[in-house]
Design goal:
The chain is an all-alpha fold and 73 residues long. The chain has four helices and no strands. The mean pLDDT is 85. The chain has one domain. The protein starts with a helix and ends with a helix. It holds the Pfam family DUF2273.
Amino acid sequence: MNGLERAWFWFRSRPRRYHGVAAGILFWILWMIFGFWRVLLLFVLAAVGYAGGRVWEENQSWRRILERLLTDR
């Protein structure tokens, strides 16, 4: 196991609050480098990509998902 793998396993074994701190620091660094709106666009596009990948991975149809989201409950 190399150093990067050990560091990754060490980080994963930490409590979730440290993961949140790391995500906040990463967001702040990206914000300082690229600006708020570009970082926000990056996160929105990443979320859309994640959702699309999940639909594709589970062989679901977009129509079924939209119907589930837009139906009256």
